[in-house]
Specification:
Number of domains: 2
Organism: Flavobacterium phragmitis
CATH class of the largest domain: Alpha Beta
Shape: globular
Mean pLDDT: 88
GO cellular component, one term: cytoplasm
Oligomer: single chain
Largest sheet: 6 strands, mixed
Distance between the termini: 14 Å
CATH topology of the largest domain: C8orf32 fold
InterPro entries: CAP/Cytokinesis_protein (IPR052557), Papain-like_cys_pep_sf (IPR038765), Transglutaminase-like (IPR002931)
Helix content: 25-40%
Strand content: 25-35%
Number of helices: 11
Structural class: alpha+beta
Low-confidence stretches: 1-24
Protein name: Transglutaminase-like superfamily protein
Pfam families: Transglut_core
């Protein structure tokens, strides 16, 4: 089966099953923010409302995430047809910084007023609202990993941006762009579906799907090779702490008759575990064993296994690997 068709199947299945899981993860902060107006006269008035309703920096940071995710939509048309880079001239460093600030302010206000943005707008608006509340926030740019086609990808260009916020002397990772929804390839449009998995995400999960241009996180060197060649994990994996213990590589060399061993944390025999073969048929895993707080099972490589194997748990995609 062609690679594009396989990727489409996996993305479609993931988008179908994603809604139920996250509908159950709404926090009390989210419930309050969901009742806010969709529009405010200014970012300052929105920040004032959040500061009034919530006492801690953690809840305020979550409230910013929730409001943006509920109300700002990903501008897929702008993603497909990005505007030409806007240049400018300057005669001094002060004038340069002033013009950069003006461009950033325009980006923030455009996202806030139009209710549409790509990741640059999401991250700039988040940072701006956090700064109005005295919360230290950074914008991080880098690479992202979202589909089976990214497993083993050779191109390494920067294509995404996210935020870090400093709360209680600890940096927290968040991606509000991914918090607002997902692209449904079957409908050819973005779907609004609030996703809390990318607020204060565990770094191990976060950096399985994000790689900063700096190559470091809090002074710790990260491996771009491990990022690109590792298994692809999904939102459900993060939300349910389905840590993938095996395989540790996303690229597996195998021949017909070889068995690929999977070990996934926080699963039991009560979970329905299957994969989809190249004929788009669901194949239930055989003889799974409970082991060390998780489930271990094997998938045998045969003529029905395609270029990719995606494991599903209770209808949700959890991990994909590439077979070569």
């Amino acid at each position: 089966m062609p690679q594009k068709k396989i990727a489409l199947i996996f993305l479609l299945l993931n988008s179908i099953f994603i809604n139920f899981t996250f509908a159950q993860k709404i926090s009390e902060v989210d419930k309050i923010v969901a009742k806010y107006p969709k529009s405010f006269d200014s970012t300052e008035k929105l920040a004032d409302r959040i500061e009034k309703d919530f006492d801690s920096d953690y809840d305020r940071s979550r409230a910013i995430y929730s409001w943006i995710a509920f109300n700002i939509r990903y501008d897929y048309n702008a993603y497909l047809n990005p505007p030409r880079t806007q240049g400018f001239s300057y005669s001094s460093e002060a004038e340069k910084q002033q013009k950069i600030k003006q461009l950033n302010d325009n980006l923030i206000q455009k996202a806030f007023k139009s209710k549409k943005a790509v990741c640059e707008g999401f991250t700039a608006l988040y940072q701006h609202l956090a700064s109005l509340m005295g919360i230290k926030c950074e914008i991080i740019r880098g690479d992202s990993k979202i589909s089976v086609r990214d497993i083993g990808r050779k191109t390494t260009s920067s294509n995404h941006a996210w935020n870090m916020v400093l709360i209680d002397k600890k940096w927290r990772l968040l991606d509000v762009t991914w918090g607002q929804g997902y692209y449904d390839s079957s409908k050819g449009r973005m779907v609004n579906d609030f996703n809390p998995a990318y607020f204060d995400t565990d770094p191990d999960y976060f950096f399985a799907k994000h790689f900063p241009d700096s190559g470091t996180y809090l002074g710790k060197r990260l491996s771009k090779e491990d990022f690109l060649n590792g298994p692809l994990i999904y939102n459900t994996t993060i939300e349910n702490d389905y840590k993938i213990k095996s395989p540790d590589s996303g690229i597996i060399e195998a021949r017909n008759g070889d068995k690929i061993t999977f070990e996934i944390k926080n699963l039991s025999k009560s979970n329905q575990v299957f994969y989809v073969n190249k004929r788009n048929q669901a194949v239930k895993v055989q003889n799974p064993k409970e082991k060390r707080g998780g489930l271990e099972f094997q998938i045998t490589i045969d003529n029905n296994v395609g270029e990719y194997i995606t494991v599903f748990v209770d209808g949700n995609s959890v991990v994909s690997i590439k077979i070569v």
